[in-house]
Write a structure and sequence with these properties.
This protein is an all-alpha fold. The chain has a single domain, classed as Helix Hairpins. It has three helices and no strands. The protein is elongated and about 50 Å long.
Length: about 100
């Protein structure tokens, strides 16, 4: 393992913990959505770093394209749900 792989994996773990903290401690729907996006992006970083450490070339790229497509779909559906929630409740706070 080289230094870039180790630092990438470490950064991915730190970003995942920041995202989890944001999901569990925030009551605003927009912040929860952004925290879930941070977790998705850290998973992409982890896959690239682990793939680099293990010597894989194309598998992390294909996985990342799939995850980016899923994240785009998640954002579109989540913003539609947020707009609907705001129309019904008049606020963006959960609870």
């Amino acid at each position: 393992m080289n230094f870039l792989s180790i630092s990438g994996i470490t950064l991915a773990v730190i970003l995942t913990s920041i995202g989890l903290y944001g999901i569990f401690k925030s009551r605003n729907i927009i912040r929860i959505l952004l925290s879930s996006e941070i977790i998705l992006n850290s998973s992409i970083l982890f896959v690239f770093s682990a793939g680099s450490a293990l010597g894989f070339t194309y598998t992390p790229i294909l996985f990342s394209i799939f995850v980016i497509g899923m994240a785009l779909t998640e954002v579109i559906v989540a913003f539609a749900a947020i707009i609907l929630y705001y129309r019904l409740r008049g606020k963006l706070e959960v609870g």
